[in-house]
Amino acid sequence: MEFTSNKNNMVYGVQVAQRAVSPKNPLPILSGILMKLKNNNLCLTATDLELGIECTVPVNGSSEGSVVLPAKYLSEIVRKLPDVLIEFSVEKENNVATLKYAQSKTTIHGYPADEFPLLPSLDGETTYVIKQELFKNMIKQVTFATAADENRPIFTGVLFEVEGDELRLVATDTHRLALRIGAIGSHGYSGEKTSALIPAKALNEIVRIMPPENEEVKIIFSNNQVVMELDNIRLISRLIEGQFPNYKQVIPQGCKSKIRLNTREFLDAVERASLLAKDGSNVIRLAVQNHTLIINSNSPDIGTIHEELPIVLEGEETQIAFNSKYLIDVLRVIDAEEVFLELTGSLSPGIVKPVEGDNYLYLILPVRTV
Amino acid sequence: MEFTSNKNNMVYGVQVAQRAVSPKNPLPILSGILMKLKNNNLCLTATDLELGIECTVPVNGSSEGSVVLPAKYLSEIVRKLPDVLIEFSVEKENNVATLKYAQSKTTIHGYPADEFPLLPSLDGETTYVIKQELFKNMIKQVTFATAADENRPIFTGVLFEVEGDELRLVATDTHRLALRIGAIGSHGYSGEKTSALIPAKALNEIVRIMPPENEEVKIIFSNNQVVMELDNIRLISRLIEGQFPNYKQVIPQGCKSKIRLNTREFLDAVERASLLAKDGSNVIRLAVQNHTLIINSNSPDIGTIHEELPIVLEGEETQIAFNSKYLIDVLRVIDAEEVFLELTGSLSPGIVKPVEGDNYLYLILPVRTV
């Protein structure tokens, strides 16, 4: 294996692939990146067996081949290289890679490429296609509502549901639920409804490595895996097994109090109130009056906060208590100048949604206070 | 106590003073910031009894007084305030502070001001005056060479030595030594030589809080304390007791090999070599040949690096091994396009200094290798 490359392409490819390397993987070869040269394309692959990332970068190939190099050292070294032409070669017998740059050189001991697990190449029947900017936005507006606790795997995933040309992403940790609807296209669509549970981690990763110049994301499902394809990147993830709760059932139809208010002012006030809600498990109290939303929190021995915000109220005056974190999370990503807060008494879930448009809904359970 | 203030002045004052609050201080009142209003000046003070910081900001005072408020909550809250006029008042009877902003307000429970320790007001006989930019630069070029280990307190300090109009800062951790010389002025100079050991921590703090628009730093010593004054800030630190080693004795006069090379190229090469020197306690090997410096490092099982740099050599060819960290530290701060590396065989200390000027010297002990 032999090629030359500029520094930036090497750094980029290694950094993208490296995101799939788990630092605590017990299999030594999985701490490595598989480098595979074919013509003038260098394909870099890493996987922790749950998630795999493949990134292809252009180089000047002169002899094909492959090797697995330790991700940590490879990445530290290429980042520190001078910005000159890098000559890369691997001795087939012992898998030692040599990088020559200017008058200097480094050698890195690798592993045989054939010991590296193969990433499956999926040929699903249905390929979905979605605009990258939209997909990114949809992912950001739901993944935060998943649970971190791996003991209930279903809640660490995002439901990916397609019906016709509508994609719905749904996430819940049982305390709150986020639902985002967007337009999706498909090739070879079978007419059946697709419903799959993608790990939030895989979705957050694809957002992180989306190149700004890439326009569309292709999404292909097989039995228990999903592939997301960008121009030069493929991300493969296992799907989560199990039955996602029936989210439609829990979304209330209508409300008794519909409050319209400025998103940014709401967020700032809740953030301040949360500073003194620490000792009471983040509980803040909302009281809805005719033209005013009052937010109160207090930490005994430390202090209190009393916030007043102008609102437009349709319906009844009411009051309710929330975990401030769950409100802050949604107000940070909702991407609308004004929101509706819909309430039905202090025991029913609240709904947050943008005033304009109908493509986002966030449900949040109240905290019962004495 | 009552005043109004804009948000930015409050945030600034609290953040500067807060740097002297130690999060693990066992005395509750020391987790607080003393706020003292006199006329239109709000003075904020914090201390961990080793280091104290006082910052004065302009406000619109209407009733004088003082209180101690918990630094953590005060700082979180003022940072989150809206950018409006803040009305600040304290109830004398119970030390509860109220901040009103727009329609909202917060209360914070405080401590009585008279329980807060007094920072000494030093009236030393000699006041030194030094340009802020120069002092900052001098501090950055020596403090990194101090030891972190509090068991040998002398080596956690920087020697501050004045003779005539020359200030020398010296730091060592016994493996390397940094010496920086600069010009200093004085008022009421007694003619005696000043020699004091200032904790590196206090010097690093004063650099961090230097306002860009401040031009001079006043430095006043008493028996066991030092005060550094900026326009609106006073930093007070205890001095370290004990005898600093005789640094002049360890600096070699002359050398057998004088190597001139580009600072940036040297730094980059040493940084790369250090990546594969990890398993051998950071040891890199330098070989000086006629026109070339060769740097080698290797980690068994991982790989090797071989770097070649162009140099101008005066004197003998030689070789030596160093801890790469000690070289990287100095090359990052030396602030000169080219440096001299002066060597006298592989067992004597090496010297790094700028090619231009005579105000900086860094000594580094070699590593003995088999």
Give your account of this protein's structure:
The structure is a homodimer of 370-residue chains. Chain A is elongated, with a radius of gyration of 25 Å. In chain A, 18% of the residues lie in helices and 44% in strands. Chain A is built from 7 helices and 27 strands. Chain A has a 9-stranded antiparallel sheet. The first copy, chain A, has helices at 7-18, 71-80, 132-140, 200-209, 247-250, 263-275, 324-333; strands at 2-5, 32-38, 41-47, 51-58, 60-63, 65-70, 86-91, 96-101, 104-109, 127-131, 157-163, 166-172, 176-183, 185-187, 194-199, 216-221, 225-229, 233-238, 257-262, 283-288, 292-299, 303-310, 312-315, 318-323, 338-343, 350-354, 360-364. Chain A has 370 residues and is α+β, with helices and mostly antiparallel strands. In chain A, a hairpin with a 4-residue loop joins strand 7 and strand 8. Chain A folds into 3 domains: 2-115, DNA Polymerase III, subunit A, domain 2 (DNA Polymerase III, Chain A, domain 2, Roll); 127-248, Roll (DNA Polymerase III, Chain A, domain 2), CATH 3.10.150.10; 252-364, Roll (DNA Polymerase III, Chain A, domain 2), CATH 3.10.150.10. The A-B interface holds A 70, 73, 76-77, 80-82, 96, 102-109, 268-269, 271-272, 275-276, 292, 301-309 and B 70, 73, 76-77, 80-82, 96, 102-109, 268-269, 271-272, 275-276, 292, 301-309.
